[in-house]
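Thread: Modeling a multi-component assembly for a lab meeting

Hi all, long-time lurker, first post. My supervisor asked me to bring a structural picture of a complex we are working on to next week's group meeting, and I have zero experience with this. I have the sequence lines for every component (955 residues in total). Could someone generate the structure of the whole assembly? Inputs are pasted exactly as I received them:
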Amino acid sequence: MRCYIIAVRQYLIRRLLQSAVVVVVVSFITFIIPALFHGTVARVILGPRATKADILDFNHAHYFDRPIVYQYYRYVNGLIHGDFGHSVLRKTLNRPAWEILSPALPRTLWLAIVPLILSLLIAIPLGVTQAWRRNKAFDYISTFISFMLYSTPAYLMSILAVSVLAINFAVFPGLIPYPTGSGFFDPPIFMIQNWRAFVLPVGSLTLLSLAGVARFTRGAVLDSIVQDYVRTARAKGGGNWRVLSRHVLRNALIPLVTILGLSLPGLFTGALITEEVFNYPGMGFITVSHTVGRDIPVVMAATLIIALATVIGNLIADLALVMVDPRIRIATN
Amino acid sequence: MKFSSRAKRFVTTAVAIASMSSGLALAGLTSAGAATTKLDVPLSPNDYPNYIWPFASGAFFTVTNMNDFQSLMYRPLYWVGKGADTTIQTDLSTGAMPVWASDSKSLTITMKGWKFSNGETVDARSVVFFINMYMAAPGGYAGYVPGMGIPDQISSATASGNVVTIHLTDAVNHNWFLYNFLTEITPMPRAWDRLSAANAAGSAGCGENLVSFTRTAARAACGVNAKTGRVASGVFKTLNDRSQDPSTFTATDPYWSVVDGPWKLSSFDTTGAGNTPIVFVPNPTYSGPQKAQVNQLIMHPFASVDAEKTALATGQLDSGYVLPTDVNTGPKPGVAGTIKWSAIQGKFTVRTGGTWSFNYAYYNFDSATGGSALTKQLYIRQALQASIDQDSIIKSLYNGYGVPTYGPIPALPANDFAGSSFKNPYPYSLTRAKKYLTDNGWTVPPTGTATCTRTSGCTGGIAKGTALTLHYEYYSGSPTAVKQMQAEVSLWAKIGVNMILNAVSDPNTVSADCLSGGGNWQICQYGGWLYAPDYYPSGELLFYTNALSNPGMYSDTTMDAIIDATTQGGEALKTRYAAYAAEQLPYMYQPTGTGTGVVSTKVKGILPVSPVGAYLPEYLHK
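Re: Modeling a multi-component assembly
Sure thing. I ran the full set together rather than chain by chain. Output:
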């Protein structure tokens, strides 16, 4: 046991160091790109009537005339102190990027979590059923639909939902009302209060992720049911349900942990297009609007946050796998 | 004002959707209608006000801030525009028209005695407060022109009751001074003339008559460092800082809740993210001719045109913007066609109209920043201009929603600045364009680049053997802009001009390049010029030697003399200026988009689209 703990600790340290390297590289990239545009930032902020002297003053005041290494040091120092830079978009000019992004984080998180849960609730039984009844009519039809959904771009899905169900038939609202509150638990309350407005975006996102998870589950279950331990379980007289739940699913769904871990960044960005179409001010909405407005500092801050989420997601997935999969535990030992 | 600097109103393309800023440059005539409802209107996509004090530097001098937000609450000394009219509206102005002395060097303005919402009178001190602030921190206001108008041509400004008396250092053209400078003034309440809400109104003293109207005295009164001009403390800093802090944009803020306009702010995204609707409610104490007729005016922010169009189609908006492709071509420029988009057919009507603006590209005359000897030659500029088929571009790329631009005077609405005899000096003709070149020593081959072949060199001292190659940087933010440039390049190629395009998709980069002379361009385009708040199209900001918006360093003594004569009293000379600026081609004139918007058939009391962006929602009702 002691050996195991030491091994896991070493593994954890190694993964943390790897993650730190990734974060440093990402932070450098997110720094260097806006650094190339400093001259234009001054012009944007000071306006067209600013003189060259004004621009030189501005660049000096913001250290843009200092060596790039010093600027990077200041940037990293700012990040450590929660300063992600300042917006150059007109509507949010000079506002800290974190102030702009932080209220959007919980909105996006909740908008993504609900479809994720719904898609898991639907896709796992669907995938299992497809595998269990493989090469039957149900499998063919649901596979066809899955492929259709899988290959549908998020933008098209959202636009179709709005065009048909909001504009043509007026069944559901085409836009989400403006959210109130910026606390972490405000979005779910808001979603319940305005559930009709969330039917189309949540439905679109659910359908989009459902297809992938269902296909993955089908494949994993198909792989499992031909394994010796399943055959053994059947030979020992296990019924369908018992074999499925105790032997097939327990093994087949282990890789889902990886998928869930990797979907963490998707929680922030997956709703990117959907938020824009439904005018919901989450991370996607803000990233799109600030990208269109060439607000590089905010876009870079969003990129950094998403990159951090990716790194953390990977880390969590790896650690979770160590916990749930005895084979990896043994390999680690 | 430069379009792209103050708003997201690029007129380089026909998709200048925001020409109906907020979809709402719609004013009403009818005074009937009960205050029983609300108006839902969109803000321009991806835009939101971020500055509330009507004394803004260039960074905050946007149409969204000034026209669509501040002017609803804080009314200027002189209001310009109502419907298609681009003149001063005396009934909507807080002051009576100025009375000039016979020497044109002094004027008096009698205030009408309107009331601020806290009971203060909008009097002469309210005006002097603004002028003193302007004198103290001229760089803090975007309209400042060194050496001209307010404050540099004012020798004294004093308030006595309701009468403001202003003495000038020089005689000026009355209309030029009125439309370019007096219209900038927004009377400010004494409630703003204090260092904190705990202090008494007027305690900072910036609104008091100065013993001597000097920059030093003004800076002492308004809290600007007398030596450096930098703002360290004082009432300027208080107001400027507060105006950039959206958490103060509330219905109860001790500063911003004091209004004299027809609307009061009720709700705003105080987080600064710009995501929640802005709600205005009527100001019951408004002294003007028309009180608001709806209970709420709600401005909705949108991330994209698509989201705004969804709101239109699902009945969540009373007006909005659409793309030129969503509507049918109108019978003539400035006249709207019918709606093509089936989702809103029958529910909305199309709105369009000219803007008090013109579209252009800069020529670079400054060899120190990449300017070419070629662009200095008028005959080459004439050849380039005569090769632009503006009518075809407007028809095919703007869907008819644009007007040809032949000079700096806006073509729409009709006006007398250019004079009735004004004609396009360079109508589209490739034959004529070639002749400009061949007459001056150039050989234009059937294909390929024209070359200077005259033994003695071409006109303007261009050496024999020089090829006609130019670099053109432009903002490529829309497919229409790209197609337009491709069309023009193909025409220029027919007269032997090898135009090397540099398409820049980042508006910040292209505006910085154009305005700072970076990018090594000979021609640069990123937007147009909107005559606001300097409504009088006299050109001192554009074509005067070393003018602020003259990055190509155009310099011509005749042009300077004409502008001087116009601004100093020669009202009759304005048509000479218009003709000369069209003939001399200090800029390359490009088609100007007119934009398209829609308004619900339920909304009543609508006037034509305001060319100057005058937004008067108090006239609208359902």
